[in-house]
Design brief:
six-stranded antiparallel β-sheet; alpha+beta; D-amino Acid Aminotransferase, Chain A, domain 1; Phosphorylase Kinase, domain 1; 2 domains; homodimer
Chain lengths: 234, 234
């Protein structure tokens, strides 16, 4: 119906529809610990697609380019087909998660300045952290890194404010980037699956699932994020 | 006799003698796997102190500042007392060791360009790799990082050539840096304990010990390195 499946991941399916475009379908699945924890949460795909749409539209409106084109249906977005970089870009505002294993910081401590980290998307190597010299070895040039860093920092400023207006604290998030006709765009999604946000210092993101909360709690939190973001962008 | 012990590590003892100076004594011990492998190799301290002296003298002669002042006795060097950065700086020319767990490279492959990595010296956290944003959080400024990177690259160029002249291939090495009267100097040691070098593609460094070779093989290799370096600097 949507043409050929280009790629199916743990939470999304990409279909090729016409040249240069893809349909990105959000599944209702949720996974953690490299796929070892896995569940289906009815409605999750729709919520994540809507949050992604809100965020990417907000970024576009503010001069940050993403792959988002338009909504297709409840769980499906039309996006530009990118040539993806094999990296994940993490941006952190608050000391949490794996950063606590790297630096002597208190959990929940506000960072003096945002911290950006690059990870190599490799199941085989376990997604190791890379520095800019490693990226150069992978063929990502200095100017590409500079642009990706700049876009990530601008995204962080825009979204920190958006989340603040929505009564949420943006703890950290993950971006993926790709090339489209020699422009570098944000790809993938932006949802509570790959950002951390706190509402009165309690998570409203995938950490709930990681912590063993049931699907009702998880979907309620995701819906709360959606409701709050919808209110501030409209 | 040498005054107070300032610090005793796995392979060295630092004594305070007079203000601004330390005596660095090289022990005969060798350790690996965070101290779980440990042995004593008579003569090793002397050899490592001599290799360190040769390397640091060569660097000084070529405009790279180190903490080395003079030799005191067989196993002891007089050095400037630095305020150390809590980081290890690794420079790599050839894909080997932990780099193979981070990037999809062939073991022994020549890198397109040197790779520099920073590690946080923390037993508690297991010496994690840091990027420049993490270093900023630790209080190392951008200009300090730039200077440390520059010194590391210059050291690499000088020593790659020195080792090449000695018939050895400099695979990678670790430096530590510290501040002395607002200058950033190379501290610690430079020996087969913390560089990798290959003679006809076989290690002549601590990898021999890590691989389970006996002390005779290890000390023979260290002496071979010393002999070859002595020849090319004299």
């Amino acid at each position: 119906m949507e043409g050929n499946v280009v790629r199916e991941g743990k939470t999304k399916i990409l279909y090729k529809e016409k040249p240069g475009e893809l349909i990105m379908e959000f599944k209702d699945s949720i996974t953690a610990m490299n796929g070892r924890l896995k569940e289906t949460i009815p409605g999750k795909g729709e919520v994540c697609s809507k949050i992604t749409e809100i965020i990417f539209s907000h970024l576009e409106k503010n001069g940050v380019n993403t792959h988002f084109i338009s909504r297709v249906s409840e769980k499906k977005l039309r996006v530009k087909e990118l040539e993806m970089y094999p990296i994940e870009v993490v941006c952190r505002n608050i000391a949490f998660g794996s950063l606590l294993k790297r630096l002597p910081l208190r959990s929940g401590e506000e960072l003096k300045r945002p911290v950006i980290e690059f990870y190599y998307k490799s199941d085989e190597l376990g997604d190791p952290m890379l520095n800019e010299d490693h990226l150069a070895i992978l063929g990502v040039s200095e100017s590409e890194i500079k642009e990706i860093r700049g876009t990530t920092l601008k995204t962080n400023e825009l979204l920190k404010e958006l989340f603040r207006n929505a009564g949420l604290k943006l703890v950290d998030f993950k971006l993926e980037f790709g090339k489209y006709k020699s422009n570098i765009l944000i790809g993938d999604e932006f949802s509570p699956d790959n950002f951390r946000a706190w509402l009165e210092n309690r998570p409203v993101d995938k950490d709930l699932f990681r912590m063993g909360e049931g699907r009702d709690t998880v979907i309620k939190a995701y819906l709360e994020v959606l409701k709050r973001l919808e209110k501030v962008v409209n």
